[in-house]
Amino acid sequence: MKTLDRYILKSFLKPFFATFLIILFVLVMQALWLAFDNFAGKGISLGIILKFLWYTTLLVVPQALPIGVLLSSIMTLGSLSENYEFAATKSAGISLPRMVRPLVFLTLFLSGINFLFLNNVYPYAMLKQLNMKVNIKKKQPAIALVAGSFNTELPNYQIKFEEKYGEDDNLLKKVMIYDLSDRKGNNKIITAEKGKIISDESSRYMTLVLEDGYYFEHHLKNGSSFKEKQKMPASHAYFDKYTINIDISSFNDDDLGDEKYTRQYNMLSLAQLKDTVPTMKKNYDDFIKSKAKNLFLSIDIEDLHHYPDSLVNKEISPNILENFNDREKRNILSSAVSKIERTLNNNKSNKETLKNRRKYLNLYDIEYYNRVAFSLSCLLLFFIGAPLGSIIRKGGMGLPMILAIAIYVLYFFSNTFGRNLAEESSLTAIIGSWISVFIMLPLAIILTVRATKDKGLFDVNTFFASIRTTIKNLFSKKEKTT
């Protein structure tokens, strides 16, 4: 290795390790802050928190690497240009591509490391962290309760509420509870304006204190017919305060190391995704065929027949309803309306189910293509950062930091935007995953060409000179024609 190559690599690696570690720390702290409510005051041991931080670190490494490469490339090339070291090397006959050649090989190596992390380490860390979150919620059931939908995690109860608030997130607003403990369906319904969750780590019960509510219970006997059930008595009452003790001892039997979720899209390697996606697509196609067949049968298309003209009764009116009396007309129309409404409701339900299944399948497809696309982000962002640094001729953490953040935000949001569109089937999975590359690649090519030709980021004089030349040519053509 030549002295120049060693010097360039040394100039790059120093800011790279510094910026990479800083960015990694910031991303880990951000993830910890978002998950802070799940740990604070919940009796979670320090060892569990450190494990969570370790898995989080492994998850954000593929995201921190491209940012580190981008920022350090702008800083390194900007510093070399600012100190006129580029000018010295150019005067010695060494071109910009020759100078950055060792950095290109280093960036290729970092892209390979990024791919290995995305394909092997990232799925492992995601599997461990997600299962840890689920098991922590089971240790502390109050954490698992989510506002706005029915929560079915608690045994024998379904709980829904509008809002969870308070310092410990244990206060509830607008509570509705289905008590299923008697195994007879939703016969006990409790509503309340406010509620409070009281649970201790060592207790086998979680206490739910409700205030200002209403209790309704429909008394049923086993084996009763539908008519008998309608005649059964019901009891109801208003209350100022009502306490429910829910047995959560089954949750305490779960180990925080249990792994119940192992086949989600972000827990699989590329090889596993490649094996899983075809099977899911086949199941999805079979589901569509089944629903299409059911729709075909529900509208009785198979009962329609084509008869020869010789069999047509000349006395039958072309208006079908005119061939029936008023009572028969009402029955026919009522039956038709009922069948149409039933078919429309079924189609609406099937449409939502189909959309969710397609969306779930898209997640696997997107993850497969995004692993490859995102692993190339180190190389792509280097070819943006390196020429940009040589053009702006500014090192340090000031302007390079601002430019790096702006560029990465553009890359990250275009990647997220493409994935969201692909998830909703507005784009194909491969286009949605690679759209950020398609957007950033022209910028990388333009900056690299301008830096190689030693041009500025935007040459104002050349721009106005081209406008003046165009205007002169137009006027000269008019003079010749006159």
Features of the shown structure:
482 residues; 5 strands; alpha+beta; LptG/LptF_permease; 13 helices; 12% strand; extended; five-stranded antiparallel beta sheet
Molecular structure report:
- It comes from Tenacibaculum pelagium.
- The chain crosses the membrane at residues 12-33, 53-78, 99-118, 368-388, 395-414, 426-449.
- Pfam families: LptF_LptG.
- It is found in: Cell membrane.
- Its main location: membrane.
- A 5-stranded antiparallel beta sheet has the order 1-2-3-4-5, with no helix packed on it.
- The protein is extended.
- α3 (46-82) packs across α10.
- It is 62% helix and 12% strand.
- It has a domain at 155-247.
- The chain is built from 13 helices and 5 strands.
- 23% of the residues are buried.
- The protein is α+β, with helices and mostly antiparallel strands and 482 residues long.
Overall pLDDT metric? 79
β-sheet strand percentage = 5-15%
By DSSP, the count of extended strands is 5
Distance between the termini: 68 Å
The topology string of helices and strands comes to HHHHHHEEEEHEHHHHHH
The Rg value, from CA coordinates, equals 34 Å
Alpha-beta content class? alpha+beta
Low-confidence stretches: 460-464
Biggest sheet features = 5 strands, antiparallel
- Per DSSP, the total helix count is 13
Strand order across the biggest sheet? 1-2-3-4-5
Helix content: 55-70%
| Outline | extended
GO biological process, one term: lipopolysaccharide transport
Organism: Tenacibaculum pelagium
Membrane topology: Multi-pass membrane protein
Keywords: Cell membrane, Membrane, Transmembrane, Transmembrane helix
